[in-house]
Write a structure and sequence with these properties.
binds iron/sulfur cluster; binds S-adenosyl-L-homocysteine; ten-stranded mixed beta sheet; alpha/beta; disordered N terminus
Length: 421
């Protein structure tokens, strides 16, 4: 496909309202509520029961409302026909079903979709939908920006603006769901968007509860993955929730890891691997190690050998992710040949390894390309032919994307494995 055709099919942008349809609260965090009603998506079933009880309402109404919202996808109280007329009229004063507004919706040539959400006060976060092998994986964000400041990560370049609230994380799922084709269903959820999930554990694990509970979104725990840079004191929560653990290892030893991930100075590799082992023992599951290949930094064969030695004894698989370039990162993506050499070396050494094709690079939705900034960053631009004409670097990226699209994929991920943006 010629480059022009790729760029023409690149971006479909949804029509946006001229202004957000509400005004902001003065609590200075987060998004507003339309009125003083509590946001429904912040609640578990028990929370809503307690809330209704506190307002002198019948508790069994909570179950009915959860069924309408998560089973029937009905949020208009008027249509919740098994509620009494009086209660239906009162409901808008009690509960808000407001979702974070989608301010941009981009579709990649490879089927990946990226949605940009307005979280108020100029803050935006992104969610990415990735189709692969009969699955549809949703990658969601847990924070605006990230304080872990990994050197290679675009999100990490922005200091933490704030942690998202439960309703804003659940809201990403619901808003994405509303925009899928009629025959599409999210099959997997990964906390691999913007932010460090274990830096926002209360909201993240409440969201996890809403996602896997039969009264909520009702997705199997095995289809939920929480990815962390290795905040060891909080890692027990992932085992406790019985969801899958992914760890961004990204280096074969302490020296390199501390250089690319400063968090390693606080939580060094040996402690991290011990925490991973604990997870495996507690859950009987494997850990997924993510390993970003950066040219000359983590991609040498010697690194592959060290890596295999390092993780020996931890039941795991390793996802290798060629570095996704972004402006001013200072790192480079290795050549395809070097990636293949590294990959082959790991296989030779007996590692369970998956080489990840980066999805959504044309819409800047790939790993480490997500950002909360609204200005001067490429993924918030309307991607048009004329703009691309002036972006030779991104033209090369597109050409690379074309190659990836037309090359048959080796090592296609099995159905229960973590895909990668
Ligand atoms: N904060 C969590 C989850 C979000 S980051 C974590 O670090 O695990 C999700 C993944 O993107 C991580 O594995 C990270 O190593 C990877 N990543 C970050 N920047 C990248 C880049 N520029 N290219 C490829 N992968 C990147
Ligand atoms: Fe934060 Fe994860 Fe990016 Fe590190 S890789 S800066 S932890 S989002």
């Amino acid at each position: 496909m010629p480059l022009e055709t790729i760029t023409e099919t690149l971006a479909e942008t949804v029509a946006l309202p001229a202004e957000a349809p509400f005004s902001y609260n003065d609590d200075n965090v987060g998004r507003p509520l339309e009125n003083k009603a509590v946001n429904f998506y912040s609640m578990t079933l028990e929370d809503l029961k307690d809330y209704l009880k506190g307002r002198g309402k019948e508790q069994f109404r909570a179950q009915q409302i959860f069924k309408w919202v998560y089973e029937q996808r009905v949020i208009d109280p008027e249509k919740m026909t098994n509620l009494s007329k009086k209660f239906r009229e009162e409901l808008p004063q009690l509960l808000s079903f407001e979702l974070p507004p989608v301010v941009k919706h981009l579709k990649s040539v490879d089927g990946t979709q990226k949605l940009l959400f307005d979280m108020g006060q100029g803050n935006t976060v992104e969610a990415v939908v990735i189709p692969s092998e009969g699955r549809l994986t949703l990658c969601i964000s847990s924070e605006v920006g990230c304080n872990i400041a990994c050197k290679f990560c675009f999100t990490g370049k922005q200091k933490l603006k704030r942690r998202l609230r439960t309703e804003e994380i659940v809201g990403q799922f619901m808003a994405v769901h509303d925009r899928l084709e009629a025959d599409q269903r999210i099959s997997n959820i990964v906390f691999m968007g913007m932010g460090e999930p274990l830096d926002n554990p209360e909201a993240v694990f409440k969201t996890v509860e809403v996602i896997h509970s039969p009264w909520g979104i009702n997705l199997s725990r095995k289809k939920i993955t929480v990815s962390t840079s290795g905040i060891i004191p909080e890692m027990w929560r992932i085992a406790d929730a019985k969801v899958r653990l992914a760890v961004s290892l990204n280096a074969p030893n302490d020296e390199i890891r501390s250089q690319v991930m400063p968090i390693n100075r606080k939580y060094p590799v040996s402690d991290l691997l011990k925490a991973c082992k604990d997870y495996c023992e507690k859950t009987g599951d494997k850990v997924t190690f993510e390993y970003v290949l950066m040219k000359g930094v983590t991609d040498q064969l010697e690194h592959a050998r060290q890596l295999v030695k390092l993780v020996r004894g931890v039941p795991c698989k390793i996802n290798i992710i060629p570095f996704n370039e972004h402006p001013g990162s200072g790192y480079e993506r290795p050549s395809d040949a070097q990636v293949e050499l590294f990959h082959t070396e790991l296989i030779k050494l007996g590692a369970h390894v998956l080489l990840r094709r980066s999805m959504g690079r044309d819409i800047f939705a790939a790993c480490g390309q997500l950002t909360s900034a609204k200005t001067d960053l490429p993924e918030t631009m309307d991607i048009s032919n004329s703009q691309l004409a002036g972006m030779s670097k991104y033209k090369r990226e597109l050409a690379a994307a074309k190659l990836e699209l037309t090359t048959p994929q080796k090592n296609s991920p099995a159905n229960n494995e973590v895909p990668h943006v």
